[in-house]
Amino acid sequence: MSSGGGPVAFVLGGGGIHGASEVGMLAALLNSGIRPDLIVGTSVGAINGAMVAADPTPSSVDRLTELWGDLARSNVFGGSLLAQTATLVRTGTHLQPAGPLRRLLADQLGDAVIEDLAVPFHCVAASIERATEHWFDSGPVVDAVLASSAVPGLLAPVRIGAEHYLDGGLVNSIPVGRAVWLGARTVYVLHVGRIESPLRPPRRPWEVGLVAFEIARRHRFTTTMAALPDGVTVHVLPAGGEPLSFTDRRQFRYRDFGSVPGRIRTAREATKAYLEAAAS
Fold first, then answer.
1. What is the value of pTM for the model shown?
2. Are 151 and 129 in contact (CB under 8 A)?
3. How far is 99 from 76, CA to CA, in rounded Å?
C-alpha cells in the first residue's frame, strides 16, 4: 500500500546470519498492514527482499522462515573443516561452493525475472571490473541475488555477462539513498543491529580491517541520512536485544543457525512495539 506520505520502500541491509532479524521486522510490518511499493536489498537483504517482492503478504514470512530453516538443515553452508579446506585449496579464493545456495533459492523463486515480481525490486552487487556498485532491476532473480550475496572469501564471485560481482555490502550496505532516488517518500530500514554499536580503536590484528569497513559503511549511511530531502520519512527499525559489538566474533559464525528463531522473534517484537508507538 502507499501511505499518505507517498510511495513506501523497504530497505534491507546486509549482515549474513544476522539477516534473520529482518524476517522478524518483515513479519511486524506486513502484519501491521504496511505494504511496500518498492523493495531495495543488499546481500542477505537481497535474499529476504526478493522473497517479499515475489509475494508481499504475511505468507511470505512463512516462506522466509522455512528458507532460513532450510539453510540450517541443508548443506548450503555445511561441510566439515576438511571439506572447506579442500574447496579453498582447489579454488584458491573461497570456502563454500555456490551450488547449494543457488538450488535453495531456485526452489523458492524458480526462474522468475525481476520484471515480473509483484513489487519492484532492486538489489546491489559490487562489480569487480568496474570497481563500483551495480544495481540489478531486471533479469533472473536468482542470479542477481547470488551476485548481491557473494561474500568475499566465503563464496566465489558471480559472473553475469562479461562482469564478475561480489557482495553488495562492499559498496552499499544499507541503500536508503537508492530508495529515495527511486521516489520513495516513506522508507522502512531493516538492518541487523550493528549500526548502534560504538566503535573504538582496534586492539587486535583482526579488528583493523573490521573497524575500517565499519567506518566506511556507517559513514555512507549517516551521510545519506543527513542529506535526506524534504518530504522523506525514514523509520530505522529496531533489531531488538543488545546491540552486537563490532568486536564480537559471533558475527563471523556464519553457520550459527541455532540463533535464528530467537533473532526472528526478538526483532518481530521490537518492531511491533516501534510501529505501535509511531502510530500513537
1. 0.90
2. no
3. 8
